[in-house]
Amino acid sequence: MNFVLSHLVSLIIFTPLIGLVAVGLIPSDQKQAIRWVAFLASLIPAGLAIALWFSYAGGGEGFRFQEQAVWYQAINATYHVGVDGVAVPMILLTGLLTPLALLASFNIDDRVKPYMMLFLLLETGMLGVFASLDLILFFLFWEIGLVPMYFLINQWGGKERRYASFKFFVYTMAGSLGLLLSIQLIGLTAGTFDIARLINIWPSFNKEVLVGVPISMIKTVAFFAFSLAFAIKIPLWPFHTWLPDAHTEAPTAGSMILAGVLLKLGAFGFLRLVLPLFPEQAHRYAPLLALLAVIAIVLGAYAAYGQNDFKRLVAYSSVNHMGFVVLGIAVVAWVAGSPSEALRQSATIAGTGAVLQMFNHGLSSAAMFFLVGVVYERAHTRDLDELGGGIWQVAPIYGGILLFSSMASLGLPGLNGFVSEFAVVRGAWPVFTLVTAISMLGLLFTGAYILKGIQKVLHGPKNPKWAGHNMEMNKREIVVVAPLMALMLLIGVWPWWLASVINEAMKRLVG
Amino acid sequence: MRTEELFTWLIPVPPLLSFFLIWLFTSRSKTLSHTVAIGAMAVSWVLSLAVVLYALTTEHFGKTVFASSVPWLPTGDSSLNMGVLVDPLTAAMLFFVPLTCLMIFIYSVGYHNYGKPLDAHDASQPGAPAHNGVEPMYSRFFAFLSLFAFGMLTLVVADNLLLMFIGWEIMGLCSYLLIGFWYARQYDDPKKITPRQAAVKAFMTTRVGDVIMMLGIVYLYFATTTDKAKEILGLAGGTLSFRAILYNEEFLKYLVSQPSVIVGLPLAALIGLLLFAGAVGKSAQFPLHVWLPDAMEGPTPVSAMIHAATMVSAGVYAMVRMFPLLSAGWHEGGALTAPMMAMGVIGSFTALFAATIAVTQRDVKKVLAYSTISQLGYMIAALGIGAYVAAAFHLITHAFFKALLFLGSGSVIHGVEHGAHHSQEHLDPQDMFNMGGLRKKMPITFWTFLIGGLALSGFPFITAGFWSKDEILGDAFANGQWIVFATLAISALLTAFYTMRQISLTFLGEPRTQSAEHASETPWTVTTPLVILAFFAITAGYVGVPETFPVLGPLLQAIHFNRFHEFVGGALLELPAAAAFNVWPLLVSLFVALGGLWLGWMVYGRNPLKAGQADPLARPLGPIYTLLENKYYFDELYDFVFVRPSKWLAETVVYRVIDRTLIDGILHTVARAALRLGGFFKGAEKVVINDPPDYLAGGVQWLGKSFRVIQTGRVQNYLLIGMLVVLAFGGVYYMMLAR
Q1: For residue B55, how many other CB atoms are within 10 A of its CB?
Q2: Three-state SS string across B253-265, please?
Q3: For B172, phi and psi rounded to 5 degrees?
Q4: Which residues of chain B from 250 to 289 reach within 8 Å of chain A, CB to CB?
Q5: B651 — contact with chain A (CB < 8 Å)?
């Protein structure tokens, strides 16, 4: 037991690989066995993540559950992991979403074995990013998270999967390139890759190491490279166009994880690396970040409203929702270290709202993509006009669940999305007043596209297309969304349990 | 926690439980579902009554209140709390909201033909109104209704602006779900709005107000966190609590003294205006009034729920609640604050504007819808001129008689539908021109509707509507707000006129169609709520009879009945002075009510319309009639100015032009350039990179051939070579690391 507790984070990161090996040992034609083993194996990290949550939420501040081991001695990189109030919710989210995504993938029939293995590898990559306290390790996991997703889209995707996966891969790689170079630049200059140490020394680091290159320039270059890599991942406007394509083509479970967790890696990068390491630069460019965020919010909502493909509509909703995350981050970046207590409090609220929004969007977007998948599997089309509505009549359970998830996505008070959006808007108002006011236009149009989706799928007179089809969700599918719905409601009614953990981390970040 | 506080916490809970119970477990059983829903609502009603009784028996209630809260969202070192509050205003709301809700719940049982078998045709067409027999989605209806009641009760007992907003938005969702309840309904006329379109319209229009209101909430919240504010409030962090903000004179003064982000507007004024935008949407004030008439697409109990007991009164209630903030800096007789000015102008304009439209409507429910908009305008205008108590008073009396009227109209429609089923006619059962003579066919409905109609018209001395309207007019007169006074008086005249028109067209004369001929009275579950509401449509007025009113005032005073002014006024920091009795506004009030009714009688009542006869107003009014009939063409205008451009912007500009063409265009160009560069490198590579390795490969081959000598096939030799290699590599590493 002691061993488990003292190595909890490492166990969480690497237990998916046990599942990977186990799945690898099963013959390829035993599809059902492969599915169940992968699903059950993914429950181990899920359980450990919950254990981590409860042991973390108990008390204490800063990076906890740290583990450090010799790793890449030659370049002074160590295996250093640990979690804080931002990482723990994200690990919990990843731990919970992966089994659900695997369960959602039970209808995959083509090359089940590599599919499941890739998924488990993906989980390790994502968890690793959230727990890394070493830049090289961070980058390693960052890339591990990229490759399986590429194959999932490329091999199990829709018609345009080659274009979409290529766009996704190259775009993200373009960001990664700068990330890697900047990591090396920082490592070379500061002599360490340890994030926990760098947070303390790098912002005030003032030694000139590379001959003739001023340190401020190195910092600025690194700041932009980091920001670009993370902005692409979030994705922030105007780097977002890979997202609708990738989502539309990805298999259902791939979209669930892509929207649910992978996008969060970008926002997490901002919170873990950009803000603590480059407070000055972050402050300087915070208004730009806020501006791009509000453009993402408004144009994301408009673009979603302009879609006729249900999945693409949901994909664009991610651009819209993640905009609020970025807005919250921009507020923290601008205010951090400010002498005004009222502003610092606002920034804490905004930052808490941003992380909460990451969690909430993880839940609601995963649910929405899954529900799109459910209807696609039965109707074989996602085109809203082709669907022609009338599904509520033949699938009342599905109708209720879709309405519920849509409302969470819309930010209906009483469900989770509202809490985080309110917190971000509350925090951003005194800092970026005009931008926040404009973002309300996005909130308005969130309603428009959500209602458009509901109306075109559920509403309408009896549709002869569905006669003789079983459109209703089956038990397995209900089991996939039920936990998500329960969490949406719980957070909406009682956000304290989650927000208090994030709040502590934000207070330290804001200063 | 004290009992009354615990009770307050519990008030909204039963309907919520009922919603989940019906959704998850009982939806297959209609009997079980309505039992759960009505039972839950009854529990809430009893709890509310208990709390109201506690409040009435508490000394100096208003100075003391019932309140309790718990932390909800961490905000740095402090927290945002959520809780409940009962002050006199809440108590007044708790008296009528659960009661009307309960009536509506019971009414729904009969309205949806409970007890009749499920019609086979209806069962095959879920999502469309049942033609005959019980509603197929009966359970779902009660689930939605329960959630709606939960939203409203949450809003009423909320102790802070955010919780109130939460209840507010939950109601928004429910009204969306309920207006679009018959989501599959299709009309032959493609121009006629379907329920599902009306639902979206209602949600989106109110959301315009809501998002602006949200800015007001966050602004107010931030304003409580500045150093100075914290000092005044004596709090560690910010707050949205009504008690903390609205009953702290010093803090209100501080808000008035601070500048806002808009130059020249004090902080309090801007926050007030932002909050008012929410009420404009929710209470369907001009220019966001367009959703409410179309909300009539929902089943009739929904109309009553939305237009009387709950949603639209929520907007006015919020404004009454926030009145100390809205009027911060104003004192009786002084200059109005900006939010008050806005309320006065928009409210009185809406009152008149909607009344003119109501005059020409043919649909029995649409008349009531416009009349609701108009009456809400009354209340808003009353707040605008500072008549706080009068606004709250009219809110309550209106809730009773308007619920009565809507339920009555539903009963009428139900009766006519029944007749239509009998006579096999295809007609619009809501069109008043298809009715006539129903007083004999549906006597209970007629008499109760008449009471409701007279209350709406402000029929003197007997009905509740008279007392509350008179008080508003009296306050406007006393405050010297002549324009508001005149506008409201004219709208009162119109109100009485169109009410008489409605009663005449529906109930008087002879039946104009076969359906009306065969209409029959509705079951007891429908008529009982009508009778109960009719009772309150008369008596609810007496609690507010001014003490200074001749004869009746002192009489009621003697038995402590007309305590409304003192009780609800007690919710304010300073008990507002009751306007002194003045005979002029009373005379005007008598004149407009009776005059309007008389005019209506002259045009429609004296010579009832015959079948096929056109509206007698159509000819004399000419183009004005067409303009009014088409609601001043606001739907068309909004469609042209907002809806279409938004669609175009979304589909064409944002998606096709910006994303697909511009951004992806740049990306593809970059990609192609990279590809070309790659092609160039590929060529260069052949010379620079590809060929040398080829030579290298050749070299290795040659080396391999040469080394064949040591491939002796002897294990010992291999081990020897292996060891040498390891030693060599080890040496290199050692040198590198030791450096």
Answers
A1: 24
A2: HHHHHCECCCCCC
A3: -60, -45
A4: 261
A5: yes
Q: How far is CA B224 from the centre of its chain?
A: 27
Mean pLDDT by 10 residues, chain B (739 residues): 86 94 88 91 94 85 84 90 90 89 89 81 79 83 92 93 93 91 86 90 93 94 89 84 87 88 88 94 91 88 76 89 88 83 93 92 90 92 89 91 90 87 82 86 91 91 87 87 91 93 90 85 88 90 81 79 77 71 86 91 86 83 86 88 88 87 87 83 72 70 65 61 65 58
User: Contact A397/A477 with Cβ under 8 angstroms?
Assistant: no
Q: What are phi and psi of B71, to 5 degrees?
A: -65, 140
B78 touches A at CB < 8 Å: yes
ipTM exceeding the 0.85 mark: yes
Contact between A255 and A373 under an 8 Å Cβ cutoff? The reply is yes
A163 touches chain B (CB under 8 A): no
**Quick check: bond before B301 cis, omega within 30?**
no
Q: Which residue has the tokens 């680091």?
A: A205
Whether A342 and B650 lie within 8 Å, measured CB to CB: no
Contact, B256 vs B265, CB < 8 A?
no
Residues B316-353: b if buried by 16+ CB within 10 A, e if exposed: bbbbbbbbbbbbbbbeeeeebbbbbebbbbbbbbbbbb
Looking at residue B712, what DSSP letter applies?
A: -
Q: Which residues of B touch A441 (CB under 8 A)?
A: 211
pTM of the complete model = 0.91
**Helix, strand, or coil here: B479?**
coil
Residues 6+ apart with CB under 8 A from B588: B473, B477, B489
For chain A, give every domain's residue range.
279-511
Q: Which residues have CB under 8 Å from A68's CB, separation 6+?
A: A78, A79, A80, A81
- B/e letters for B525-534, b = 16+ CB within 10 Å, e = fewer, are bbbebbebbb
Cα–Cα distance between B450 and B443 in angstroms, integer?
Answer: 10
pLDDT in tens, A351-402: 999 999 999 999 999 999 999 999 999 988 899 988 888 899 889 899 999 9
d(CA B525, nearest CA chain A) in Å: 29
